[in-house]
# Entry
Amino acid sequence: MNIFIKTYGCQANIADSEQMAGLLKANNHTLVANESDADAIIVNSCSVKNATQSKILNYLNTHLKNEKPKKIIIGGCLTKTLNLRKKIPDLSAVFDTNSILKINDIVENPHDVFSGKKEERINVPALRKKNGIAIIQTSQGCLNTCAFCATKLARGMLQSYRIGDIKRELEIAVRQGRAAIYITSQDNGCYGFDINTSLPELLNELVTVEGDYKIRVGMMNPWHLRRIAEPLLEAYRSEKIMKFLHIPVQSGSEKVLRDMKRIHTVESFREAVKKFRSEFPGITVATDVIVGYPTETEEDFQETCSLIKEIRPEVLNISTFSSRPGTKAATLMQLSSQIIKERSRRITNLYKRYKQEAPLIQIRLSPEPFCSKHF
# Structure
């Protein structure tokens, strides 16, 4: 069967799609580069943003109306936060993030599959999207309770993979000639807390693998980073670790951080950046901010702008607040779209000025966390 995979969302979603592609190929299915050549379309969805959700629903409806109907199958995080069967009854199948290993059965005998048990998806055959890059997931789920996040509803509590299993997947990737290894999860900072280990211990073992490669560590939340900061700094001394640190602050206001149920402080974020920059001059620091959280006042927003102006992160991901079903933030009175857009414009202009002063600074406006991708 010819199959096209459309992916929305983060690096973890991309890794899930690569594993689905690998499993399908191993079962003699053919992955095609466009919808017109496909017998079935698999949509790997994201639940982070309303804008992303709208794009996904529009994509599904558009292809269901095709003159030559195809099997339309949807998985990913959105299937746990939205009743897609009720919204789009003509879907061939719906499945969740705990059912990826069943993808061949779902495609060949379309039916809905949901599971409350996480799959052990380390060392699963993967068809990599980019030849030089291997995305390796270290865990599923997280330990956080952020008031705005729907991903926790989809992926649940933390389940870390064993260091030896992750190392074997890296060894395979290196033998395949992957020069960049992206370590990813919902939150890398809490890796191993459920199995009595940690991210620094993982990295120290991974860098013992021989070969020509670099490891890029993905996002970690500031409160977990604080717990592992010193050993992580030591682990980062390895030449095999890219000097890249992604720690989302989300707001420069202590009040808004409390409202968001973020358990770090602005000062702890500031300290983390200072430590890593002191140890590794030239390190790339990435952070995220949410503009227009329901309780954000003009003063709160100004505190965010002041923090970003002070820190000058090399990469800035700007998101406008998006109310997601099932989250605590969805029950709050929302700010007007005009206020949110105006604040987004102002912080964007602030960074455009910095970009002109320092060309290395990158601005990412993110109505969705990553652009959609496909095989």
Notes: DSSP finds 13 helices and 15 strands in the chain.
